Amino acid sequence: AWGMTMGHPLLLTALRIQTLEALDAHTTRYKTVDTMHGVLVPLVRLLYGRHLQRGFDAMVEGLRERAESLP
After folding, report:
1. Residue 56 and residue 69: Cα distance in Å, rounded?
2. Residue-level pLDDT at 29
């Protein structure tokens, strides 16, 4: 898990939890949950929402490529 607070917790608090779950010998589920709370959340989503989504997508793709390249 990773989290941060910007100034006072009422302004912006974020928490990211990432998990890997083995479903069988050849399949793993990756899950990420990102939560934000505070009065700045709408502004953060407006300014950075697309960038955050692209970052999440790139991370998932990199993780998938790496996992599939392993013997």
Report:
1. 20
2. 93
DSSP state of 1: -
pLDDT, position 70: 86
- Looking at residue 59, the DSSP 8-state letter turns out to be H
Task: Return all residues near 39 (Cβ < 8 A) that are at least 6 apart.
Answer: 10, 11, 12
In a 13 Å sphere around the CA of 37, the CA atoms on its Cβ side amount to 8
Q: Is residue 26's pLDDT more than 90?
A: no
Q: Which element (helix H / strand E) includes 68? A: helix 41-69
Rounded Cα–Cα distance for residues 13 and 59 (Å): 22
Return d(Cα 49, Cα 29) in angstroms, integer.
24
